[in-house]
Amino acid sequence: MKSDTIVLSGERNVTLTAYIQEADGEFGFSKRPAMLVLPGGGYAMCSDREADPVAAAYLKAGYQVFILRYTVKGKGGWPHPLNDYEQAMSLIVERADEWHIDPARIAVAGFSAGGHLAACAATMAEHKPAAAVLVYPAILKDIVDMCAPGMPYPHEHVSPDTCPCFFAAARDDRTVAIQNTLTMEMALAGKGVAFESHIYSYGGHGFSTGEDWINTNSVCPRLPRWVPDSIEWLSEIMGKLTRNGLTEPTAPVSMNADFAPVLSVECTLAHLRGQSEEAKAALSPMFAGIEAVAKARGFSVEGLMAAVGNNTAREIMELCQIPADTITGVDKALHGMVNLLEV
Fold first, then answer.
1. Do residues 134 and 118 make contact, with C-beta atoms less than 8 angstroms apart?
2. Please, where are the H alpha helices in 239-300?
């Protein structure tokens, strides 16, 4: 493994530390996913506790890892930190071949104030990450303004284009109240953006990866599991790194496909009912299954469809015991049809 620290701004003391692992040769792949780590510190500093320990966890999972020490107080205000992120991401993409990175599989992990920056990257940046891991992120006005007045509140900028997000936080966080995480999650849910949430019973603030040697307070014994859980979640969103390279993502299972460019069996019934006649014809096995269930149980077809309207076509067809190869055929047909979002 090679490491290097690149100065992005000497005047503002902005650096990007790169940890680059080998590819090809003994490895059966030429590209790795990447993780850009944004430590916390209230925009007053960049915490070492949320830098190298985090990098080590994702390095072990096969990622190329970068730590951005962005602009902090006294060196310049907003939007310098977001510009630092954009510069770092541009550099990573520019040198993707040299650093053995798949540029479509670059994620970001942010903690506290770094979580605010990561959330802004997920919602507002030109170079949005493929996924964002937000650990006790600062989101709401009170804590964001305390860090530095004039910065955006990420939940106000969530759109269907926001990347999928993973959350880890503790219910008893007295520094960045749990309402920050919950508000961001509700904003994502309102726009149909995929997310996974792990809120632990206790652990306070600043627990980083959760190991005993890092923590300054007691934490829930399950709390360190957020790290492997985030890696598994990233495998769903970006694909898993294996001996033979990166697998295809299983993202449609965890994402709201109602907002995808094309249709699929991961779209909800309510959404699909507003699509073209061609789409409805492709879904005839599902509608036949619903009619059969309604008849067997004495329900009206329309009433049953209304009751299961928020279920995906896949879920409904599986409940109707429609063969897997038929479901695959329906999915393939739908992939050739544009998703009409205004239905």
1. yes
2. 251-254, 269-272, 277-282, 284-297
pLDDT at 334: 93
* Alpha carbon distances (Å) from 148 to 9, 69, 122, 152: 20, 17, 20, 10
E-only strand ranges, the chain:
2-9, 14-20, 32-38, 64-69, 101-111, 131-135, 165-170, 195-200, 241-242, 245-246
Q: Is the pLDDT of residue 253 over 60?
A: no
A 10 A CB-CB count for 170 gives 24
250/241 Cα distance (integer angstroms): 13
CATH code reported for the domain at 2-254: 3.40.50.1820
User: Can you give the residue ranges of every domain in the chain?
Assistant: 2-254, 257-334
Give the pLDDT confidence score for residue 297 in this predicted structure. Answer: 93
Which whole number is the average pLDDT over 217-237? 95
Are 78 and 151 spatial neighbours (Cβ–Cβ below 8 Å)?
A: yes
Find the helix packing angle between 113-124 and 80-94, rounded to 10°.
Answer: 70
**Is residue 293 within 8 Å of 304, Cβ to Cβ?**
yes
Point out which residues pair with 6 in neighbouring strands. Answer: 16
Does the pLDDT at position 290 exceed 70? yes
- DSSP codes joined into one string, 27-39: SS-S-EEEEEEE-
